[in-house]
Fold:
Amino acid sequence: MEYTVQKLGALAGISTRTLRYYDEVGILKPTRLSTAGYRIYGEAEVDRLQQILFYRELGLPLEQIKEIMSSPSYDSTAALRHHRELLQDRRRQLDLLIKNVDKTIASREGRMSMSDEEKFEGFKQTMVDENEKKYGKEIRKSYGDDAIDQTNAKLKGMTEQQYEEVTRLEQEVKAVLSEAFKQGDPASELAQKAAELHKQWLTFYWDEYSKEAHAGLAQMYVDDERFTAYYDAEQPGTAEFLRDAILIYTNIEQS
Structure:
């Protein structure tokens, strides 16, 4: 079956303007143009649009989606299986948060008691799940299953005060690091403060701190593009700057 822009937009629940934009950027081209110059889409384009919308629902930017789907190794069936796994992960996370909300309501209404730790269970489990999904394979390879399992357990066992403090520290690291990066010197007082704050942040997750592990993690920030993207989101080069600051802070030579 073939569709015009209007009909495909209505079918998918998106605007005709979006479809025209997808054509312009080359991520979804029509099958052909009609004699009157209208875009016509076929079954293959319908399937491709479905995949694009799956990726958008998962929060991926359009450029990354285009890169993924343009790869010679792209397998649409394998992609669907991956989509399903990610959606199941999201459902589990939502179920935990819904359970947390239900317990909170029951506690407010006097039908049950709820400890301070329980109030944050859903949030902490979601954080663990998201970290595992994004970085689990790499960090387990680098640090081993036991170390990562202990880190996850430590996170889930945090008190309300600890959870608030580690969240505050994460934001402070980013703020101080941003200012230090503008100065351009990883050995500066401000950059070394960022490295110290980063160490404090790590101690909430690690049972034991070591300079070697700290330096190794900093190198991973540079070697793994997902970590790099997190730190470089606002100022490209920040991940390398943080790595250099931590190497100076730990007094470990770059390998």
